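Repro:
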Amino acid sequence: MNARIVILAASAYLAGCAGPIVRPSISPATPNRDALLVLPGFGYGRAGEKALRSLAASMAREGVDLYVPTYVTRSGLASSRAKLERFIRDNRLDRYERLHVFAFLAGGWTLNPLIERQPLPNLATVIYDRSPFQERAPRIATTRLHFLTWLRYGSTVFDVARTPYRPFESPEVKVALMVETAPTSFIRRYADAAREDGPFAFGCGSFLQRYDDCLYLPLNHNEVYARFAEVWPEVNTFIRRGRFSDAASRMPPVDDALAHGKRR
């Protein structure tokens, strides 16, 4: 692989970070409002920012204020966790009746130890975006594209690559999984490296995380960001009901979309 292709492959994975989305301040006396805290990861870029911004107004009309912090630092998971903690405090998310979290991959690695150490009293829901494919991307990026990965993200992606997932266990909070079933172009490019960790397990119980409901998305990691408007109705349903809709896909794929070089 020549230098140009390596750089293009890195760019596909190491997308540029977008800015934060923060709703205007509300009065602590405003009743019956919820907050949704979306925790992007390494693939969050302009397309994801545009998709989330386009939803903010309609979500607010439904009583849900959207917060999307820029919290991933170059200094590692501990620093990113401290920055997220400051964001939650500075934006007074504890004043909401209920707080919900949608965590992309790095978001889960950042959030779980934080809320284990310092529980959020109004936390009602956590929805995790999980992927048998994309969860191998940090290891591939740090081993195959070591310098470019460090140049773009510093230590944090290396921390995620070597840190086992730490599950969130609180039984008082409703927890859901949304499982991606399509690989990104980065994973397709490095398919052999992705397979080094063994078969891809899509079963909801394979993610080492307690859950109340689980569904499958016919999307890859980049598309979940860019097409969040398609994901939001099920997120909203889970927030309201504690389970996804009856129409949600709960059947895992019979094989992985990387096996035959095809797109699901």
